[in-house]
Amino acid sequence: MNELNIKGQKAKKSSFTLAQLSSNDKNKGLKAVADAILLNEKDIIEANKIDVSNAEKNGVKGSLVDRLTLDSNRIKSMAEGIMKIIQLDDPIGEVMWMKKRPNGLEIGKKIVPLGVIGIIYEARPNVTVDAFALCFKTGNAVILRGGKEAINSNLKIIEIIKNALISVNMPSDAVSLIEDTSRESATKMMKLNEYLDVLIPRGGAGLIQAVVNNSTVPVIETGVGNCHLYVDEYADLEMAVNILVNAKTQRPGVCNACESIVVHTDIAAKFLPTACKKLREHNVAIVGDPIAKSIVQDIEPASEEDYGKEYLDYKISIKVVNNIDEAIEHINKYNTKHSESIITENYSNARRFLNEIDAAAVYVNASTRFTDGFEFGFGAEIGISTQKLHARGPMGLKELTTSKYVIYGNGQIRE
Amino acid sequence: MNELNIKGQKAKKSSFTLAQLSSNDKNKGLKAVADAILLNEKDIIEANKIDVSNAEKNGVKGSLVDRLTLDSNRIKSMAEGIMKIIQLDDPIGEVMWMKKRPNGLEIGKKIVPLGVIGIIYEARPNVTVDAFALCFKTGNAVILRGGKEAINSNLKIIEIIKNALISVNMPSDAVSLIEDTSRESATKMMKLNEYLDVLIPRGGAGLIQAVVNNSTVPVIETGVGNCHLYVDEYADLEMAVNILVNAKTQRPGVCNACESIVVHTDIAAKFLPTACKKLREHNVAIVGDPIAKSIVQDIEPASEEDYGKEYLDYKISIKVVNNIDEAIEHINKYNTKHSESIITENYSNARRFLNEIDAAAVYVNASTRFTDGFEFGFGAEIGISTQKLHARGPMGLKELTTSKYVIYGNGQIRE
């Protein structure tokens, strides 16, 4: 039996125990883990140094090495993250509704854990702690398959979590790490239907696409965000510039950053010069269609490919449209169903945008950067779903649950 | 461009229109379709006769020919089914909650259609009408891929639906039928991620498994039900016999019928003789473990395979257990996560069964036969989900929807 099957079997078995734990017990387990992470800071940093030095040796690029690196502050915020999850309400056990049917049966819809959650992710070792804590709080077992770059950090973190759980009599099989970081182990995990109830990929577009294309386990697709800002002819232009600069530059490397401006032709000549000047102050490279170029001459031409691109960088594209219909059509064609915003003071255009744009989050007069579990008030998230099944948008604790019907009878049979 | 891509593209385009229709408009479309089906009864029966005669020529077995056959009554009930769906509340547009965040953003979670739903099904032409009506009511476009046995009936029904929609200015691309009934067309449909938001297989275990294993489109797994009745040591035995006979024999060919009895050893000698006698009066074949056989001697031995089997027939297996732990373990091992029932007067055992059995519907003192959209009060169903993602149990209109976050701001940017 291989590593995946052994760990799958243990996780499945453990999930039945986890599903029955009280919130108090689960919080006790989480607290023990948070304490242990702080207490073992040195060991984590030591293990992490091996990963960082290997990454540097292998010529991994700077931004990735930065994501991989753990220091005292980052370890503290891992522990703090757990403490925040302890504070959140436990969704498990809530009966969302119960009704009495004409035959006397009382039927209720109850929130229960999903069971075993698989997570495939890349270089960030903080995901190991986050994912465990969110799954444990919701009574799910989790099987983690992190990237090879972080394997030493991950092994140490998992060892600490397991020991902490054992110290307070919680099932240590609640979490496991696949030590085989080959491509094959990821592929096998995608077929582990016997043990996994859901698989969540966290990482770049390549990883997510590979999981969607190859997994027979149900997948929740997360992350890729080609987000637009549509500046309507009735926009407050000062607000539009403000929001644009925020949505593009406040943190360009994340999925809810703005990647493209769509502008109504009637205000393009007024809006674009100021907007482009401000973007340039933040060193944003700009590409645009011929009309945009005729207004702001020193921008580069935008290709078809540009409009479909998530730059995750200081770069943005511009598309000028004749009306809101064209704006909606353009956005629905190129977006990745993540977050889209209209800037307008017009009631009907705001309403049409909210109704007709197909995306997880649709905004009027606000930055797309708000699509986030904390900003939405969920307290924490396991990722942002860009698919429509099960969960859409930021996935908090509730999205890591399913339901079961509980039915109370007194001898009812079907006529 | 092949048939699937052409129809996929049209359905996708149509889905944007459908999502914006009012309930009144959608009900008008449904009413026109119901009327047209009744009006064109003769044409449907004529087309159906070709299918039935082909099936008989090809030696298709009697029960399948029966499912395939349409007569005046069955066509009437198709139209009645639509009329019932018209009566149901339209879930689309409901804002489940809206809250104001500290920064003044108002964030709401709104119910919207899934988009384009694909359905792969087998011989029953009534599914064509049902699936269309449920999808149309929820503002979804639907692409149907029925079995080759029903192709003539399906083509005629689709023609009637499309013409009826056109007659009341509704988009006829709301529904389409894949005319290529080869295995290849089904396989291609499973990869139609560009156009399909979800794929629902309806049919036997083989079809469902093929879709789960090969689809890159998100799937909702439906149907297979290896349902158990656990007769606890504290059962009311008269109730237990009553419920058993109902759950097994009221309609043995459906997924919520009982396939296995689990009995506490302390009441086995009292319960099994009566139970088996009653089952035999209904011509139910019985297999059991050695203890069951020692009590009711003329039953056949049950194999390991029997316990994992959905007979869909007048046959049942018996397993005797020493306690409720063994009962729960046995059921969680062999069940298909569909419907399970305990017969008991004991509070703690009832509670443990409800909590610890992993299934879509868990009953105390009632027949498993109630797991059904109508019986649960949903009014209609597209199938019974046995997976945990998105929908679990009977899938009504609500399960054919997703949500989107609508966010009202006045210039908010992220700090």
Automatic annotation (TrEMBL), chains A, B:
Keywords: Amino-acid biosynthesis, Cytoplasm, NADP, Oxidoreductase, Proline biosynthesis
Pathway terms, separated by semicolons: Amino-acid biosynthesis; L-proline biosynthesis; L-glutamate 5-semialdehyde from L-glutamate: step 2/2
Superkingdom of origin organism: Bacteria
Subcellular location: Cytoplasm
Ribonucleoprotein is among the record's keywords: no
Domain Aldehyde dehydrogenase: 11-291, 317-377
Catalytic activity as recorded in UniProt: L-glutamate 5-semialdehyde + phosphate + NADP(+) = L-glutamyl 5-phosphate + NADPH + H(+)
Ligase in keyword set: no
Enzyme nomenclature, EC number: 1.2.1.41
Annotated GO MF terms: glutamate-5-semialdehyde dehydrogenase activity; NADP binding
GO biological process: L-proline biosynthetic process
Pfam families recorded: Aldedh (PF00171)
EC top class named in words: oxidoreductase
PROSITE patterns, per database record: PROA
HAMAP family linked: ProA
Biological function: Catalyzes the NADPH-dependent reduction of L-glutamate 5-phosphate into L-glutamate 5-semialdehyde and phosphate. The product spontaneously undergoes cyclization to form 1-pyrroline-5-carboxylate.
Similarity-based family: Belongs to the gamma-glutamyl phosphate reductase family.
Name of the protein in its database record: Gamma-glutamyl phosphate reductase
Species this chain originates from: Vallitalea longa
Gene: proA
